[in-house]
């Protein structure tokens, strides 16, 4: 039985810091799981907290519950803050009271000054969480992955992310044998070790002569490291290439497609991170690599070793230069639905060949495959719109993809994971009062020609 009540000094500390905590605390599933594991929160309490629609409301509900959860609740909460990379808030709660008068309020932190943005390029500065003060005096700013903008952009803008900005480091949660056996029959085979091969191409620095309009993608190096770590933990052999020209990207992808090891692997993943436009991404030389060419390189004709195997693509790049300014949600309890997005066909039906070339040894027709199938592609933004990237923490899309894979790959198939990513991206918004970009938004999407559920079954190895 949990003892009633928190120690009075701890209760007073929480009350004294409540305003700061409500604004700065990130209440995510990892923090809640830590408190549940320590028997501070019950399952129903955890559900009620996470059911709140905004970060501040989740923080407020948690702070109302903690003082009632016994004398260990305060120390357990501090430990959960450390585990979720919110050490600055832990320090705030545990510092001696006499320092209170000297403390600088978190909300008074000002964004760093940035040089004037290039004409036609959006550069927004950031009001960042207090954790930035403890690690680096230069605050990050969000920027978009596009090239030329149609409307004038201002450098006075700031961004405040409503969600956690730092990539989580919790280990990928393992799949249980029971879950594997109850789901493996209706899903893609996924038990090879390694599960497959992953290719990450990350263009961060662009040739100032050949691509003068393409600014460095500050924060892009965070994204490729996040992807390397999470796919390695998912049992993929990961290869990372940085700063390739368009032709270099083509050669890299062609070599990857020809790897003979694909024969014994159950899947593959390709991540392209760069500036971009609709249907293409930029090489460091300012030349475009068409995404249709990338998908074609992995189709059933050009990459036969991956026939009938799932092929995952993740594109962190703009698909246009329009800033999504968002719309006001209508009154009422129901949430607005995101507009449906047209999905591109995975392949086209071809003309039949002569019967003599389509019959096997026994005279029966061979099974035919569509030109392109078994692919799923996650895009950071919708057609025509910009993708957002934090210059210190990486892109919104890769952040949320990393979190969802680590927490949910154990029991959720990839299409539903990308739905969860969409939901998280939908909640995020920028902060730029007095400008046309106030409360800027991003919306991710994915297209799929998967024919089964795609479970990654992390850390499960069948016993033969």
Automatic annotation (TrEMBL):
Keyword annotations: Hydrolase, Protease, Thiol protease, Zymogen
SMART domains for the chain: CARD, CASc
GO function terms (MF aspect): cysteine-type endopeptidase activity
Residues covered by region (Disordered): 95-122, 128-147, 338-366
Family matches, as SUPFAM superfamilies: Caspase-like (SSF52129), DEATH domain (SSF47986)
Residues of the Caspase family p10 domain: 365-458
Claim: Protein biosynthesis is one of the keywords in the record: no
Residues annotated as catalytic: 275, 318
GO biological process terms on file: proteolysis; regulation of apoptotic process
Domain (CARD): residue spans on this chain: 6-96
Keyword Protease among UniProt keywords: yes
InterPro entries: CARD, CASP2_CARD, Caspase-like_dom_sf, Caspase_cys_AS, Caspase_his_AS, DEATH-like_dom_sf, Pept_C14, Pept_C14_caspase
Sequence ranges of Basic and acidic residues compositional bias: 97-106, 342-364
Gene3D superfamilies: 3.40.50.1460, Caspase-like (3.30.70.1470), Death Domain, Fas (1.10.533.10)
Domain (Caspase family p20): residue spans on this chain: 194-322
Sequence similarity: Belongs to the peptidase C14A family.
Name of the protein this chain belongs to: Caspase-2 isoform X2
